[in-house]
Amino acid sequence: MKRLLLVSALLALAFLLLQPVAAASSRAHAPRVDARAYLVVNATTGDVLMSKNANARLPIASLTKLMTVDVALQHLSVDQYVTVSAQAAETGEESAGLRAGERILVGDLVRAALIQSANDAADALADAASNGNRSLFVRWMNTEARQIGLARTHFVRPDGLDAPQHYSSARDITRLAQWAMGLPEVSQAVRLRRSTISGGRVLTTWNDLLGTFPGVVGVKTGHTDDAGWCQVALLVRGGLRIYATVLGAPSRTQRNRDLTALLRFALTRYKLVEVVTAGNPLAKVATEYGGPTVPVAAASSLTLPLRLDRHPVEKLVLPRTLALPVKQGQHLGEVRIYSNGKLLGKSELVAMRSVKRPGLLGKARWYSGQTVHNLFAWI
């Protein structure tokens, strides 16, 4: 019971710290967004902060290339040279200027597809991975979509150009972006504003938030006549990982405004709070043979972004009784902080004092005391 009281006190303190900000945040108005669909989600907890038509099936333009690169890298290595097919070199619209028959590194094609959204690079990856069987590559894309849980997605082309029955949703695209960002080749490429590949070709990103909105580290843009202006963005700041996906904005400028507004609003939903302070006692744990209790504290402070309209839960993972001897600074367990059932963070718990193992006389006293206690309890 005493341990539970200590936990409650700590959480109450955290809530008091949040109250002034929570009151101010409650006055923050959700932004108006002109896109056909959007979704803003905390990648750590899965909390949806804002959404509109998140499950609607819509054209997604070059957001498709996240899947293209994912599937291609299952069959190709970045340091492998491949030959650009004639069909890929002839692909229209956004291009990296690839020439039919040229030999090029897969890594260069990946960067061209992700940074400049080059259609010829995406198609070259698909053709190289499938030995020119583009239909097979698209089947691989759709199989991968099912495996990672994209329930409202269907691919027809590896480049994302408009085609009947080529669609996804804001929710699926967000999931796809999270999946793709687990690939080092993707996460490294999408944070670049410019890059140079073979032949001195300079790639320039279409992601206008890179370098202008602090903390944005990707992910992918897209535009076609049918899809409008689309983007999935990742914001990493202060322990937060926020994804914002916009589909079907009417212009590039409006897409940027919508994403900026959504990300700014998401940031108002959280406050950084030191939920665990190093050295502050959190509990006392009994020791064997009736020895003195050992106070425990976190070895390091833990500061987390807490959602203002959610109550964090603290859990101490400790043994009921400690075996002796115990040394000061000894690892005993950990403190975990949860929100909405999701683990936000944890810190190691250590002993704040040392307790020696009792000698034979001390053990004998404890055993005799226990015997007397049990006898009286039986009577």
Keywords, please?
single chain, 379 residues, Beta-lactamase, Peptidoglycan synthesis regulatory factor (PBP3), Domain 2, 2 domains, 6-stranded mixed β-sheet, 10 helices, 17 strands, 33% helix, elongated
- The proportion of residues forming helix, as a percent range, comes to 25-40%
Can you tell me the number of structural domains? 2
- CATH architectural designation of the largest domain: 3-Layer(aba) Sandwich
**CATH domain class of the largest domain:** Alpha Beta
What Rg is obtained from the alpha carbons, in whole angstroms?
28 Å
Structural class: alpha+beta
Q: How is the main sheet built?
A: 6 strands, mixed
Number of discrete helical segments = 10
Quantity of strands, as a count: 17
- What is the fold named in CATH at topology level of the largest domain? Beta-lactamase
Low-confidence stretches: 1-26
Order of helices and strands: HEEHEHEHHHHHEEEEEHEEEEEEEEH
Oligomer: single chain
Shape: elongated
How is the topology of this model organized?
Layout lengths: L1 H24 L11 E6 L5 E5 L12 H8 L8 E3 L2 H4 L13 E3 H10 L3 H12 L3 H14 L22 H11 L3 H6 L4 E4 L3 E4 L11 E9 L3 E10 L2 E10 L2 H17 L1 E7 L4 E7 L6 E5 L3 E6 L5 E5 L3 E2 L8 E9 L2 E10 L8 H19 L1
Parallel strand pairs: 11-15
Antiparallel strand pairs: 1-2, 1-9, 3-4, 5-6, 7-8, 8-9, 10-13, 11-12, 12-17, 14-16, 16-17
Helix pairs in contact: 2-5, 2-6, 4-5, 5-6
